Amino acid sequence: MINLLNNAIKFTNQGTISIDGSCQNTAQNTRVLTLTVKDTGIGINEDQQRHLFNAFAQAEIFTTRTYGSTGLGLSIVNQLSALMAGDINMISQPGKGSTFTVTLELPQSE
Ligand SMILES: Nc1ncnc2c1ncn2[C@@H]1O[C@H](COP(=O)(O)OP(=O)(O)OP(=O)(O)O)[C@@H](O)[C@H]1O
Ligand SMILES: [Mg+2]
Predict the structure, then answer these.
(1) What is the pLDDT, as a whole number, of residue 77?
(2) Residues sharing a CB contact under 8 Å with residue 28, sequence separation 6 or more, in sequence order
């Protein structure tokens, strides 16, 4: 969540950032947790979207110098989600904004 929120704040100069969370019971005594971070920032085009979950991948070459970032955040989110048998998805439109959704199926505690 911190990585996704940092990105939303970094890449949104104007508009809004919203977070959402929901939890659904399943028949297998697990819960499906859905976390969403949505922004109205610069957005990401389709070509760039393909690589962003890889380590050190950034949409624009100027990102490192402009924002002082390394391109690791999304790859960390992706790997943490995978380690918890979860998933991450992105919907984005250049100039309109981005929505990142992480879904995790977790066992219910006693
Ligand atoms: N919410 C967003 N809006 C627009 N572009 C984004 C957004 N989130 C990520 N990106 C693009 O994806 C790239 C990769 O994101 P990632 O979080 O992996 O790296 P970073 O933010 O550049 O660096 P770090 O997270 O290591 O500080 C970013 O450099 C940016 O180009
Ligand atoms: Mg980041």
Answers:
(1) 95
(2) none
